[in-house]
Every structure is written in structure tokens, then in C-alpha cells.
Amino acid sequence: MPGRGQGSPRVTGTLLGDVIRVGLRGGCSTSSVSTTSTRSVGILLAYLFVALVAGVGLALWIVRTILRPAFTLLRLLGEQEEARVTT
User: Positive or negative, the Cα torsion across 12, 13, 15, 16?
Assistant: First the structure.
């Protein structure tokens, strides 16, 4: 008679077989997780590249619309100041 907590050898063998089958299928899910994470990293890199391009475009737009006119204004004011000092 089996002791407490012990099943029959046939049931234990069946459970062991089930555990082995589940463990073997687990290897497939590991590669699936690896494939999914690789794809996710690729998507994140693509988003990073798009953000970088957008940032460079924004920086160029700021230079063209704000800094260039401001620099031109400062240059004109400097020329006026020089003209006033020399006359």
C-alpha cells in the first residue's frame, strides 16, 4: 500500500510523461519569446531613427525661422551702431 502523498506507479509515470512533454514544448516557446523580443527591438530602433530624423528636422526649422532672422537683426543693429559712431 502506497504511503501518504504517493500515487500509484502508473499515475506517477503518466504525470512524469506529461511533465516531460510540457518541458519539451517549453523550448519552442523560448524561441518564440526570443523572436518576439528581437522583433520588438527592431521596432524600437525604427522608432528611435524616426524620432532622430524628426528632431534634426525640428532643429533645422528652428534655426531657419528663429535664429537666422534674429542673427540678421543683430547684424543690422550692429551696422547701424557703427554708422552712428563713425558719423
Answer: positive
Which grid cell is 2? 502506497
Say whether 1 sits in a helix, a strand or coil.
coil
Under a CB-based contact definition with an 8 Å cutoff, are residues 2 and 8 in contact? Answer: yes
Residue 14 in grid coordinates: 503518466
The rounded distance, in Å, linking the Cα atoms of 54 and 77 is 34
Name the one residue in this structure whose C-alpha cell is 522608432. Answer: 47
Q: 21, 15 in Cβ contact below 8 A?
A: no
Can you list the residues of the chain whose pLDDT is less than 50?
Answer: 1
64, HSE (Cβ side, Cα atoms, 13 Å)? 6
